[in-house]
User: What shape does this take?
Amino acid sequence: MTALLTLTVLVLVAIAIWQMTKIFELSQLKAEETGVATDKDNKYNGYLMFAFLFFIYGITIFSFAKYSKVLLPEASSAHGGGYDQLMWVSFAIIFVVQTITQALLHYFAYKYRGEKGKKALFFADNDRLEFIWTIIPVIVLAGLILWGLYTWTNIMDVNDEDDPLIVELYAQQFNWTARYGGEDNVLGDASVRLIDIDRANVLGLDESDPNAADDILVKELHLPVGRKVNFMMRSQDVLHSAYMPHFRAQMNCVPGMITQFSFTPTITTEEMRRNPDVVDKVKRTNTLRAKWAAEGKPNSDPWEFDYVLLCNKICGKSHYNMQMKIIVETEEEYNKWIAEQATFKETVASAE
Ligand SMILES: [Cu+2]
Assistant: This one.
């Protein structure tokens, strides 16, 4: 109660002082007040422009220092290196150009600030200047666009050369299922209309298609290192997006159609766990988790690095948790694992 009273008194005193200042100001007739900025105002604003320049440079340096470590580690797919290179060159160009132009912009705003008697020089045009500021961006942008198109067509060229492994990624709210073609490496036909949950035909495989019998459905994606994988994506309900950040891969999963993406994994899970950036990230995460564990908070078990398949389209309330573990391993390990998995024919219940 005393605190409330003191606070009320303080607020009332503040209002009283403010009102008195206003009355005092109104009683002072200022002859020179014209509403036009004075030299002093302009100089003040000029310095503020400089202050803002240092603010944006400061925030840039701060972000580099503090957040560089949250970037993805080295790409784990054959095409990932070229993709990263394109991105880093684009970043570097944007960084250099913005650093220079921001400095010029703010310096000129200060240098040519309003001053009594100072008049701007007027000239209609300058061919050489216009030529320079048109031709340089044209060359740089055309180069980036051509390089980008070349990279894009290379990455998006899904073909059957080099005996790729065929894998279906099936998206539904809110989980993923992967399907391998089995012995013949050919996926059986499937349709959402054939889904029969009671008989464990969860992906709607067509039982009359001989290719479907040996298909293998799993909840953990295993990939042999060095072998090309052609992914065929389907969605049961809404738009999802299969996002495999470490492989620099993303493709929408669209109900009613099959979309494709192809890449060759180049680094096994075991090798990636020894990557210095990954080791560092695991260490940082686990330090935080140990702290959480001490405070009795959830999600505080020690974490180990694994590749992941995430959904990258906001597809509903549990979207954030729609993921599947990916394990990249040697060919022998992969062959051993796939041999242990049951086929569709073995898991589906007979139609009685
Ligand atoms: Cu989703």
In short: The first strand starts at residue 165 and ends at 172. The mean pLDDT is 90. DSSP finds eight helices and ten strands in the chain.
